[in-house]
Amino acid sequence: MQAPAQIYTLQKPKQARSRARRAALIECGVEFLNERELDEFSVAEVTHRLGYSTGSFYSYFPDKTAFFIAVQEWVNEDQIKTFMKTIETPEMAQKNLTERLSTCVDFALSYFRKHTGVIRSAVRYERRIPQGWAPNRATTQRLINAASTGLGVADRQRLEVALQLAFGMLVNALLHDPGPLRLGDKEMGPKIIMVLKPYLST
Known about the structure:
Helix content is 75%, strand content 0%. By secondary structure, the chain is an all-alpha fold. The protein is elongated. The chain starts with a helix and ends with a helix.
């Protein structure tokens, strides 16, 4: 009767180490994508940075594409708690259109600034690895639905268009950085709201 308990006791730390190792690989992937494009680093470089064997990588991910998708999912999940505290709240239904837009833009800006390299790679590799952008697409739709809570058809349409324009500006800044406003500028959010506020009032 004691043998199964002993086996369970031994397996639990082993499973914890396995989860920790997988998480370390994903976090290392985030670091690399902040430094370089997906095609500019190898699996061996990721494992070498962590002191792991290359073979250990393939015990968690069948290939580099699966790894890329796992990194994108991890980053997206990292934002969900913040999303639930700022966007999916009862208070959202009490806000006017400008306040709703401002809350969403602030959330998106924080997300883009925190995970610039990962989000940039998700956009750039969307055609080749559509599953990489899928978590962001799902969260964006979830954001639109939450931000539109309680709105009539006309107001919802105005907010959706304003969000599309705002997010388009953020993606353009992320990919091309044309200026004059850049992703890291403190005026990026307020300027977006200032430009779009008149449209929300029409």
